[in-house]
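Reviewer 2 asked us to include a model.

Predict the structure of this chain.
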Amino acid sequence: MNFSVIRSADTIWGHTFAMQLARQKRHLLLLGKDLSILESRRTELLRSSKVQIHCIEADDTDTRSIIAVSEHINRYFEVDMLVNYAETGFDRKLVDYDVFSLERKLSTNYAAGTLYAHQLLPNLLVHGQAHILDLWCSQCPVTAWEEALVVFNMRFSDYLNSELQESGVRVNSFGLSKVVDNEGIIRSESQLAAEAADILHRLFDIVPHVCTEK
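Predicted model (C-alpha cells):
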C-alpha cells in the first residue's frame, strides 16, 4: 500500500492538497507541527474519502526531528509521493534578522524540503513512478531576494530531476500565492481547490476534481 507524504499538512494549502489527493483515492501521511490540527483535518478528510490517513508530528526547524520522522516513515510505510509545501515569506528585511533567526527561517523554508527528499529517496526509488512535488508559497508581489531564493531552489529541483530521470522519480516545482494577499483579500476554498487540482492534473494527467461544497 503506497502513501503520499504531505509536509506542512496543518496549513491551509497543505490541507487543500491533502483533500485533492484523498479524492484520488491516495492514502496519506500528514506531517505538521500541530498534531491537534492534523487529527482534526484527518477526521474531516475521512468523512468523504475511504482512504488510510496517518498523522505524524514533525518540527521542520529541527534537523533531528526531520530525520527521525523520515526514518519512521521508511520503516513502516511505502511512499510513492512527497509533497514539499513551504511558505517562503519574510516579514522583515534581511539586515533586520539576527543570524540565528535567519538561519532557522532559511533552514525551515528552503533546506528542510531537500532534507525530506534525501531521507525519503530510498523509499521513493522502490516504486516505478514516484513523485516529489515542491510547492513554493510566496506573497505577491515577491521581494527580490525571496524570489532569488525560490528560483535557486527551483533550479536545484530541475537539476535533481535530471539526475533522477532514469530512476522513475519525477521532481516538479510550482509556485503558489499566499491565501491572504497584501491587501487582506482572502482567497476562497474553491479557488485554492481549483489551483491544487490543476497542478495535480498536470502532474498525473488526470481530470481534476475541484468540488468542495457540501
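Helices lie at 12-23, 35-48, 63-76, 99-125, 144-163, 189-204. Residues 206-214 have pLDDT under 50 and may be disordered. We have added this to the supplementary material.
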